[in-house]
Amino acid sequence: MVKKLFAVLGREIRGLHEAAYILAGFAILSQILALVRDKLLAFMFGAGHALDIYYAAFRIPDLIFASVGSLVSASILLPYFISRFERDTKEGKAFSNEIFSAFFALIVIVSAIVYVFAPRIIPLVIPGFAGDPALPELITSMRIMLLSPFFLGLSNLFSSLTQMNHRFLVYAASPVVYNAGIIAGVLFAYPLFGVTGLALGVAAGAFLHMAIQIPFIARARILPRFTFKIHWSDIRRIVLTSFPRTVTLSANQFASFFLVSLASLMSAGSISVFSFAFNLQSVPLTIIGASYSSAVFPTLSQLFYKGNLKEFLEKMIASARHIIFWSMPLAVLFVVLRAQIVRTVLGAGKFDWADTRLTAALLALFTISTVGQSLIVLFVRAFYAEGKTARPLLINVISAAIIVISGWGLVKAFAEFPLFKFFLEDLLKVSGQGGTSVLVLALAYTIGVGVNTILHWYVFERAYRGFTRPVLATLFHSFSASVITGYVAFLSLRFFAILFPLEKVWGIFMQGLCSGLVGIVVGVLVLILLKNRELAEVWATLHQKIWKVPVPPAEVEHI
């Protein structure tokens, strides 16, 4: 049974839309587990001090993963692996062994240093816990989570090899088992070890994220091995190539880190509601933006490597069109149905109505930026496929600086200008609620993402003339249909509020579900009237048996 499962996961897939939809399917499964994870955490803890410790413990390991783990990212290594393995398999294996060994040594050294100096680092970077009695528990949890960047970094390295061979199923299944490991930690380790048990679950999930890829690469005889024979010139070339990407990711992580640091100085539960809302807004990004970008990246790398820039641009246009087609209506529905989504996903146990209102308001602010976030992932992958890492580096550093400056400035404005405070609270329906200062952190993040999207689009259009026009046509269609979809869903909420008991979670769920479905039906009719191209392509793709898509000959370069 297990053997058959790994055989299915290791199957080759080459069609762009088919690969994207399969990745999206696994992303949906992963997100369902992530929502179950958050539901359990909300039920058991609510948005309070204990959960703040858990989410705060993530910050430093996340920063290590973004800085050190990004050195072995598929976005960087995949073009190198493709060129090495296409020239000679033996050369490709030797190269992967070198990368594995160098990363192993580096991540162990960095993690050991952070482990030793954790008692001094944490009070400085998360100042809200400096004098907190729970500081020792936070330090212990963070130390356990240091295993996460180690395992996830190795998983990144292995995923380069699986994606190179178009084994998207095993790559897509990794986040599923990651969330399963965290859920196991919540259910079984927490009752035994407390908050540190949650950290053990994170470490176990990271291990599974890596381990699920090992059977395929071992069977293909490309599993990296530790070696002392390292050509440091190769490592230096990789580091120089990946350094801009490392700074790019670190800049984004630093911006998020700064926002969480500010949240630690706010009322108890601010880190929790910020994290819950951020996780919820990541659902469309993971399902749509990340899926399409991951599916198209190997093709972009191969097309650029072979000098086929025309098809390179065509793939980018197709991916951008479909990302906008899917993500924009979903973002609008998230804003309109935010209270129903938060109450359904998180509302139970210790997660009360006040927590729901505040998290829903944060979700609305975050969701405004989800279309931009999805496009940013695509643009960055395109630049990395070309080996041009300086452009996204500069753009992301600028946007991270804007997030940091905006966060600091908006916190000051919220405290010193009552009119701004009352306007934001009234707009998001949280007037009279405590802890609303955390709202400006989500607003600062959205402002930074907006600038980031505009800059990436502008730079890509300058490099590839003709990208904007066909994408703007899709943007117009999708925006028009999305506005109508959202308005119809909003009106439907009042009607279904009569039919379902809103004092029950299932009633709130049915109200949101039915309203969303009515809005979607109307939105699809609008797209049909507009003769939308993406809708026709989606219809054609869904009529295929995606899991039985025939593999084209090796010389045909399509994913």
UniProtKB/TrEMBL annotation:
Source species, domain of life: Bacteria
Keyword Transmembrane helix among record annotations: yes
GO terms for biological process, alphabetical: lipid translocation; peptidoglycan biosynthetic process; regulation of cell shape
Keywords for the protein's UniProt record, in alphabetical order: Cell membrane, Cell shape, Membrane, Peptidoglycan synthesis, Transmembrane, Transmembrane helix
Localization in the cell: Cell membrane
Bilayer-crossing regions: 20-36, 63-82, 94-118, 138-158, 170-192, 198-218, 254-277, 283-303, 323-341, 361-384, 393-415, 435-459, 471-496, 508-530
Record flagged with keyword Cell membrane: yes
Membrane topology: Multi-pass membrane protein
GO MF terms held by the record: lipid-linked peptidoglycan transporter activity
Pfam families: MurJ
Principal cellular location given in the protein's record: membrane
Gene Ontology CC entries for this record: plasma membrane
PANTHER family: LIPID II FLIPPASE MURJ
Protein name per UniProt: Lipid II flippase MurJ
Native species: Candidatus Taylorbacteria bacterium RIFCSPHIGHO2_01_FULL_46_22b
